[in-house]
Amino acid sequence: MLLWAGFVSILLGLLALVIDRPLTHFIYDHVNARAHKALDCVTHYAKAGHWLAAAVLALIVAAAMRHFNVLPDQVAQLINYSLAFIASLTLGSTILHVIKLVIGRRRPRDDMEMGLYGFMPLAFNSDYNSFPSGHALTICCVAVIFTCVWPMWWPLWFGIAAALAVTRALLTAHFLSDVLIGAGIGLIAAREVLLLGFPGFTPGWF
């Protein structure tokens, strides 16, 4: 199911290329300063560095618990899911950054503020790094891992992931297509890492 969800998200992202620019101009004109500030406060919860640090901290805690033989079953889960997240983020980010460098797309704010818009394939220029969204990829990887740990709450995890991913478009940090394709890559990367590397810790419906 996650595989199809990832591919659908990527397909919707490709279709969104048609409406990206007018939609972004509409958002830029209608999201006021107060809403922008509120969105900016929450969007950072999707940042890769925060979750990567949390995964490393979880591994350190798990190592200490294992040393003192505390809750061995829970320690095994903590280690495996932390490693699965790190591997998912690594795989997804590698794919994402290759696409960023090869495709080369200006950020929406560059269009709004400087009139610079478009793609520059194979430019290998850091100014052309909008496509796809790393925040969307990260938070979708988090949602997949959380779904493995607390499967009954999967609508909440994916709902939060979707909301945080959309903040990137509402802040005009990314186009909608950037967000959808980044999310799709995150879903597929996390699913494949879990199924191939951690099959005993993966729900059957993945």
Overview of this structure, please?
By secondary structure, the protein is mostly helical. It has one domain (2-14, 47-198). It has nine helices and no strands. The chain has helices spanning 2-16, 20-30, 33-43, 48-67, 72-103, 108-114, 134-149, 154-170, 176-197. Helix 3 (33-43) packs across helix 8 (154-170), helix 4 runs antiparallel to helix 5 and helix 5 (72-103) crosses helix 9 (176-197). The longest helix is centred in the middle third of the chain and has 32 residues, at 72-103. The chain is elongated. The relative contact order is 0.20. The model has no long low-confidence stretch (mean pLDDT 94).
Helix/strand-derived class?
Answer: mainly alpha
What's the tally of helices? 9
Mind telling me the C-alpha Rg? 18 Å
Beta-strand portion reads under 5%
Order of helices and strands: HHHHHHHHH
Euclidean distance between termini CA atoms: 6 Å
Number of strands: 0
Mean pLDDT over the full residue set = 94
Give the structure's gist in a few sentences.
The protein is mainly alpha-helical. The protein contains 9 helices and no strands. The protein has one domain.
Describe the secondary-structure layout.
Blueprint: H1 2-16, H2 20-30, H3 33-43, H4 48-67, H5 72-103, H6 108-114, H7 134-149, H8 154-170, H9 176-197
Helix pairs in contact: 1-9, 3-8, 4-5, 5-7, 5-9, 7-8, 7-9, 8-9
